[in-house]
Amino acid sequence: MKAKRNYIIYGLMLAAFAALLLWIVHLGHAYDGLGPGAAPSGEDSPVGLLYDTLTINLKHPLSLLLLQVIAILITVRIFSYLFKYLGQPGVIGEIVAGIVLGPSVLGHLSPETFAFLFDPDSLVPLNIISQIGLVLFMFVIGMELDLGVIRRKASETLVISHASIIVPFLMGMGLAYVVYPEFGARHASFVPFALFVAISVSITAFPVLARIVQERNLSKTPMGMLAIASAANNDVTAWCLLAAVIAVARAGSVTSAFFTIVLTALYILFMFYLVKPFLRKIGEFYNKQETVSKTLVAFIFLVLIISSYITEILGIHALFGAFLAGVVMPANLSFRRVMTEKIEDVALVLFLPLFFVFTGLRTEIGLLNTPHLWGICALFIVVSIAGKMIGATFSARLVGESWKDSLSIGVLMNTRGLMELIVLNIGYEMGIIPSSLFVIFVIMALFTTFMATPLLALIEKIAGYKSRKVRPTRNGHPRILISFANPESGPLFLKLVRLLYGRVLKDAKVTAIHYTIGTETNPLNASDYSKESFSLLEPEAKRLGLRVDMRYRVTDHYTEDLCALADDEHYDFVLTGVGPAFLRSYLDPPRRLNALLSKGGKWLSPGLTQDKIRVLFQNMHSAFGVFVNRDIDSVTDAGVILRDERDRSLLSLVGSMSDRLRVELSSVNGDSPFLDKDSAGKSGRFTIGDPQEPLAARLKGKQLVLISYSAWQYILRNERALLHALPSFIIVKPQEGDR
What we know:
Layout: H1 2-28, H2 46-58, H3 61-85, H4 90-100, H5 106-109, H6 111-117, H7 123-144, H8 147-152, H9 154-184, H10 190-202, H11 206-215, H12 222-251, H13 258-287, H14 294-314, H15 318-327, H16 333-362, H17 371-398, H18 403-412, H19 417-429, H20 435-450, H21 452-465, E1 479-484, H22 489-501, E2 509-517, H23 523-533, H24 537-544, E3 548-555, H25 558-568, E4 573-578, H26 580-587, H27 592-600, H28 610-619, E5 623-628, E6 637-642, H29 650-654, E7 662-667, E8 686-688, H30 695-698, E9 704-708, H31 709-718, E10 728-733
Parallel strand pairs: 1-2, 1-4, 2-3, 4-5, 6-7, 6-9, 7-8, 9-10
Antiparallel strand pairs: 5-10
């Protein structure tokens, strides 16, 4: 009643407001015609006026900028996903998206759309915003740089990183000498041109390399750590070298650039010996605080902006100052992590795509319109790859790495990606690199980054080919792999494996692995995720007296990676788990639109869907189990449901269960000859269920049920109502060759 009265009051209030508004407008008509153009002519229709208004608003600078951002973000996300699906770093897709939106594709296919969307007069705001994004990105790169890693491997990384700069740098200088008359003579003197060509072929993209190492789960291996440390050292050296090159290019000669280089060196010393200690004190103070205050965040941004401003004024570009500001941030990981999380998503998701597209607008592949120019492009690619491979591979071999690891480091140091584009854009804006050479370098950056993942896979395949043997067990003891998502599931999986294997488990090789889905996980966060993932499993392993190999990995391809790991390390049994949604999808299948969305997004889901589980069962060569938890607690009685003779091998897998539990064997086919008294083994706690009794009745009182994969398929086709009666259960497929 009170609500009804309130609505009446609200209606009367609106009516009074409308009446008074109309009365004032009526009185105001008396002033029409007193001012110039005060009244509409009445010749334009309301629809015409609306059309004119919308047209004007559509061409407004802010509207056009927002439309550009919308088009860029949608295109970049699509291409990033496609390239990640192909097993490539998402940054390659983002670079390609920039080229697609540029004159090479969109400008060629739809010149009118391209001219409207990227009108030259509208590009200034886009360029400024993209430069701000680069400043933020370089700040994040500086914060992600762990100088401690460089110090711990100082001797090796010094040799590898500098060899991977010196060799391609010299080859780049030679290449610049060859192409200067054609590409550089009309744009700059030889020294700045040669220096920019040399730095362009010798730079390594530390962020891309780190993502590839992380995605291939090499970050904890000696080779992976050495590659990351070498790339970090390379990054620091290359940016200092780039600062010197910019100073020389702007001054016109090495002598003229001397004062700029001296001032830059003094500024670096100031940042490391005065600013860094001061920031360290702030970091120590922050450790005692629960949150980061807005005042502190504002101060950090102020340091970033001032540093960028000073280096821009010095003539060595604002990006160097942003990178330096990130490097001198407090070494405390939690402090860096918080600051990185505040900046990284905005910089990477919103601002960087604008830079890729702005680069794409400068990349007109049609400029390479002769076989000669494509030959020059191939020459640049060959020299770039050869310089890095020779410098990095042989230096890694000289410091004691194997040929496999040395070649892998050579391939990884060849990734150029985003850092190459930054250098190119600086050279282009300074008028040193012409448009045709800019296109050649962009193609080279894409090619060298794209080749990294397949070449690493090829090296691993060739190196591992001779070591592949028939699947063994270690000294006759089983090799078990458990893969879990939630930290709470780790201890439970250990208990399940102990129920299955009993006393045999003490001598088994047990590996526990946790995957984080999404290779864009920040390396700073990945370290913490790794510790949190095993925080509950580790004490449980000690309580059970088990030695467990704990591993943390990041992936975009969980099913493929789990199958590959099981194959490569010859595991006898692999156990993973699914959430409540898995069983719910069978009990209450989605319909119509929900079904369509579910099917379309099955590979986007971070969890294990029906389709992903089916892929695992089809491709896993080891014995494979999927645990479905329905609030399991203590287990005293268990059931085993098989289908036919092909499942007999599972009896050896679960034979030791009867040492701890009362186990009842059943078949979905009722009375099955293969379930005889010999199947029950020596233990009297191992019994065969009455075939005349319904399966649902036999499940009563059981806390855990083991179901063979073939029996599971039979239940889904013929006895789906049985799913309601199931307690917690494990679907198990026997190892290939045992069926």
